[in-house]
Write a structure and sequence with these properties.
By secondary structure, this protein is of the alpha/beta class. It is built from 13 helices and 16 strands.
Length: 415
């Protein structure tokens, strides 16, 4: 369970902004040394870290980062975790044993946050009380692992907006909240990507005091945005279909693939209502009618969430209503248009079970959405009753200083 678990309520009830990108050197594509498997099937699935036993039932003494073939029969271990005899080596993770089950982690005392039968709010509260400020901040940060060795960038503005986080060892020692697009940053064979991700997660768990793995997110608007994954029609086609059941099945298929690869969160659907076709991201939207966007977007959410993948509603709110259809341009709309046109799709999709919301880059009537307490706290959490996570569009927090000029420093922007 992550300290920023998207399924649990935020203890403070206020906005949670996570996802600013830290730059670290490119990780090797092939898993080496610490984790080796015999999995050759590209459909192999990342399952996680779990107690392991060999074929004779004798217990092994350490936890393992594991790859499990989806058609394999998993042993009866807690939750969705399992193991495979394909795993031949492991990263050492300290363990204690209860009733024959190995419990991974550095602190071996009986604690509420380790108890899967305890209420989520109690588990989060217990864990948060034990964490330092630095560890909590680590859980609010995302790391982009595919930085180009030459340019140092994987996306526009990363060189300017990314924050140098030190070495990989230093980063994981503080904790990592999210891993940014480990499959989608550069073409990688799914099985190879799963092995590398398992190794990375094991390193993160081994480095931290609480063995907290990172959440993994990928883009998934027209399918999981990774090499060899199926490509589906764009959201404009979803809207044109007027078929929520079809789109729900589409979302479930996309989510199922992502879940098998160890991806926890998908950055879709786009619920922006677009009425100016000059806007450069029109093809990502469902249409111009708020009810249609809400109905079809909610169906996609139900499908993705049915596979256990967190759906992320974006971009909250007003992104598509920018002046002259320019990306990142200011938004000048009145409260009636905001309430009647732009907000309803988000409210509808939240009622369908979406567990995450991404804020818009833009400012609305002069106030950047990333720092707008009225929208993120009073409307989203108060009026809509949202208790999940708010994730920043990648550089939204840095833009408070660099683009909007409302913060005097990166620290001011973060606060």
């Amino acid at each position: 369970m992550s300290a920023a678990d998207a399924r649990g309520p935020h203890p403070g009830g206020g906005p949670v902004i996570s996802g600013d990108v830290l730059q670290v050197p490119r990780q090797p594509v092939e898993a080496q040394g610490a984790l080796e498997t015999g999995v050759a099937d590209p459909d192999a699935a990342l399952v996680g870290v779990a107690p392991a036993t060999d074929r004779t039932g004798d217990e092994l003494g350490r936890g393992r980062a594991q790859i499990v073939h989806p058609r394999s029969t998993l042993d009866g271990v807690p939750g969705h975790l399992g193991y495979s005899s394909h795993c031949t080596r492991s990263l050492d993770l300290p363990q204690r044993r209860e009733d024959g089950v190995a419990i991974v982690g550095a602190n071996m005392e009986q604690e509420i946050w380790r108890d899967p039968s305890a209420p989520v709010a109690d588990r989060v509260g217990d864990l948060m009380a034990k964490m330092t400020i630095e560890e909590k901040i680590g859980q609010l940060s995302g790391v982009w692992l595919g930085v180009d060795d030459v340019t140092g960038e994987v996306a526009p503005y990363q060189g300017d907006m990314g924050t140098s986080g030190g070495t990989w060892k230093e980063l994981v020692g503080r904790g990592v909240g999210q891993l940014t697009r480990p499959y989608g940053t550069a073409p990688v064979e799914p099985a190879t990507g799963a092995r590398t991700l398992a190794r990375t997660q094991a390193e993160i768990m081994q480095a931290g005091r609480f063995a907290i793995p990172a959440l993994v997110h990928e883009e998934c608007l027209t399918g999981a945005a990774l090499w060899q994954a199926p490509v589906y029609p764009s959201p404009l086609c979803w809207g044109a279909s007027f078929d929520p059941d079809l789109i729900e099945r589409l979302g479930a298929q996309i989510g199922g693939l992502m879940a098998r690869l160890g991806v926890h969160q998908g950055l879709a659907p786009v619920l922006d209502v677009v009425r100016d076709l000059r806007w450069g991201r029109t093809e990502e939207t469902i249409g111009e009618d708020p009810y249609l966007n809400g109905t079809i977007g909610s169906a996609y959410v139900r499908g993705l969430e049915s596979a256990g993948v967190v759906a992320t509603l974006k971009h909250f709110v007003g992104y598509s209503a920018s002046r002259s259809g320019r990306n990142l341009a200011p938004v000048s709309i009145g409260p009636r248009e905001l309430a009647d046109v732009l907000l309803p799709p988000f409210e509808m999709a939240l009622r369908s079970g979406a567990r995450s919301v991404m804020n818009s880059y833009t400012d609305l009537d002069g106030v950047p959405v990333a720092s707008d307490e009225t929208l993120l706290t009073e409307v989203l959490r108060g009026r809509f009753g949202f208790s999940g996570t708010v994730v920043s569009d990648y550089f939204a927090v840095a833009f408070l200083e660099k683009l909007h000029g409302v913060a005097g420093s990166a620290l001011d922007a973060a606060l």
